[in-house]
Structure formats: C-alpha cells, structure tokens
Amino acid sequence: MREVEVVVIGAGQAGLSSAYHLRRTGFEPERDFVVLDHSPAPGGAWQYRWPSLTYGKVHGMHALPGMELEGADPERPSSQVIAEYFTAYERTFDLRVRRPVDVRAVREGVDGRLLVETSDGIWSTRALINATGTWDRPFVPRYPGQETFRGRQLHTAQYPGPEAFAGLRVVVVGGGASGTQHLMELAPYAAATTWVTRSEPVFREGPFTEDVGREAVALVEERVRQGLPPKSVVSVTGLPLNDAVRQAIADGVLDRRPMFDRITPEGVEWEDGRRVDADVILWATGFRAVIDHLAPLKLREPGGGIRVEGTRAVADPRIHLVGYGPSASTIGANRAGRAAVRDVRRLLAAEPVAA
Fold first, then answer.
1. Residue 58 needs a FRET pair 20 to 30 A away by CA distance; which of 69, 100, 144, 330 works?
2. pLDDT tens, 128-141?
3. Using the 8-state DSSP alphabet, how is residue 29 labeled?
4. CB-based contacts of 264: which residues, under 8 Å, 6+ apart?
5. Residues 146, 135: Cα–Cα separation, whole Å
6. Which of 133, 140, 68, 66 is nearest to 103 (CA)?
7. Is the pLDDT of residue 117 over 70?
8. Which of 128, 47, 88, 67 lies closest to 348 in space, CA to CA?
9. What's the pLDDT band for 213 if we cut at 50, 70, 90?
10. Going along the chain, which residue ranges are E strands?
C-alpha cells in the first residue's frame, strides 16, 4: 500500500495536462501524486493510430500546456510525431509516468481515502483524476446476422490503412469524421465502397469559430450534467465541408445510404430487398468512455453516464473526470486538466503556490 495525495489515471493529453498543473502548483511526483498509464510507451491513444493518418491530416491537435509542438513534418505519421512529443513532454517536466500499469478497480478506503487497485499494487489517495479516454472501448452495434458474415469485420481502432483493402468490397458504417476519412482513403484501392449511417450526415459550411465550438461544448456539457452518456463534440458540430470532401461527394464516394437492417453471410441487406455484397465491414461507430474501473464507487446515474459539473463527479467530489464529455478534445483536455487541479487543491486545502 502506497499513499499519495492524488492519483492520475491515464497519460494521454488529459492526463499529462493534469500532471503538468499538479507539478506547476507544487505537487511532487511520486511523493504527492502519481500518474499511471496502461500503455507500454508515451503517446496516449495517438500511438495506436493508423500509419496513413499523417500529422498534416490531424484536425485540431493543440499543444500541451507549457510546451509547443514545433517543426513537425506534416507527412510523418501522427502516431510517431505525437508519441515523440509526449515523450519529450514527460521528460521536460519530470512527470515520472509509471507504465505499463493496468488499473483494475477504484474502491472506498478508510479515513475518506480511495484505494486504486492496479497491476502494480494498491495506491491509497485522497483524490483521483480519471483521464482514461475512450480508445480502449471501441463500440460496435449489434445487428441481426452479424455472426454469420463470412468476411472480415473490424473497427476504426484496428484500421490498418487503405492498402489492406485493395481489391475488396468494403461497407463503411458511421457518419463521423473517421468514417468519411476511411472512405476517402479507401476509394482508390477498394473494388467498391458503400457508406451507411443511421442518420443523414450534416456537413458544416464555413470556419469552425470559437462561437461554434462553445455551442457544441455546451450541448455535450448538458448531457453529462444530466448523467447521460456523453456524445463527442464532433457529433454536434457536423462534418467540415472542405475541398477534399466536396470532391468525394462529387465522385460518389460519400454517397450515403440509410442503415441496413441485417447482415448476411455475403454482405448487408435492407428490409425493402436491397442488398450489397461485401468482403469487409468497417465499423467507424465511435468509442465509449473507459470508466468500468470506477464501478465499485457507484457513480453512474440511471441514464447510464456519470453526472459531472465541470470535471467533478457530482456524486463524489474526490473524483474528477478529465477528457470525458465536453473535455474529450485536445484543447478541452488541456483546460479540464487545469480546472481539475484547481478543484483538487481546494479539496485538499493545499496552500497556493506562486506560478
């Protein structure tokens, strides 16, 4: 049993932002706080992105607080660029991330402390910043006949790049940014592509202004205040209508069909008798928050989510969720890390430390 004031779970954008602000305000790593990360190396979820997602294709990657990401080659894979950046960041600010460490459960301890059970033993803490993101919980909806499909089914989390689909008939499911990116990459390689979504995709004209961003974040914040599972910010902003997307629409690549009703051994079918034969079904259907380890604390509301005010779990002020709901973006994670540390310091009655 090791005791600290704060445990941070996760070393992606949200976790590193939180650790930076803890360090900056006087908390010492290993003595006052510890960062636990299940990945074998720095980079958060970015290290698992597909090779064709180059840094130049990444939308809205914001630098971590206190250190800019400069001089990155836009043609290099984002997984390499950002992993190297995170590595340098951890070293520069001496964050001493422990990895690989799997967090199995967080339970009530004694004297108002929490017990964090991990593959590296048990940590006793007065406060917890949960920054586990969503990458480890890909979501695939269930459809009749799914288990009979003779081809390959995979999720965005396993997407290997477009070359793997050369000469194949591919059904891409999902109306978000990943689905459209996959389709535009696949089209030159695949024998045929079919795009299906549950609802008609909404394309956004014009720049993504601060006002648009604030409105989107407000909609997601309202969901988590009500204890509902959060939606992504992208889900309420629509898809950006840039030149590449316009060309893909004109070429018929982004020709959306409504969601199919069943999966057959050979492909997918609709109730009206339409069918598409396929070799691959690619589920670009998003992710869910990785929060099962918090289950012993019984934080979930009847709606299925954790009710959050700012970053604080309403049911337990010792728990802060960073990178959850409205802060599930790189810029949102930065701000949420700062806000969580501010509230944690108040909770622990820490003396302010000059910046």
1. 100
2. 999 999 999 999 99
3. B
4. 145, 148, 149, 275
5. 23
6. 133
7. yes
8. 128
9. low
10. 2-9, 33-36, 103-108, 114-118, 121-130, 152-155, 169-173, 192-197, 203-204, 239-240, 256-258, 262-263, 267-269, 275-277, 280-283, 308-309, 312-313, 316-321
With H, G, I as helix, E, B as strand and everything else as coil, classify residue 336: helix
Residue 200 in this model has a pLDDT that exceeds 70 = yes
| Residue 118 burial (C-beta neighbours within 10 Å; 0-12, 13-18, 19+) | buried
Q: Which amino acid is at 54?
A: T
Q: Side chain identity at 106, as an amino acid letter? A: V
Q: Cα separation of 246 and 353, whole Å?
A: 52
**Pairing outcome for strands 203-204 and 239-240:** parallel
Is-contact 302 331, C-beta < 8 A? no
Count of alpha carbons within 13 angstroms of residue 250, beta-carbon side:
7
Cα-Cα-Cα-Cα dihedral sign, residues 48, 49, 54, 57:
negative
Is the confidence at residue 19, as pLDDT, over 50?
yes
Q: What is the dihedral of CA 84, 90, 92, 96, to 10 degrees?
A: -140
Please answer whether residues 285 and 139 qualify as being in contact, where contact means their C-beta atoms are separated by less than 8 angstroms. Answer: yes
Tokens of 241: 């209508």
**161: number of Cβ within 10 Å:** 15
Q: Specify whether the CB–CB gap between 304 and 315 falls below 8 A.
A: no
pTM value? 0.85
Residue 322 burial by Cβ neighbours in a 10 Å radius (0-12, 13-18, 19+): buried
Three-state DSSP state, 34: strand
Task: For 264-283, give one letter per residue: b (16+ CB within 10 A) or e.
Answer: bebbbbeeeeeebebbbbbb
Give DSSP secondary structure letters for 100-159: S--EEEEEE-STT-EEEEETTEEEEEEEEEE---STTSB-----TTGGG--SEEEEGGG-
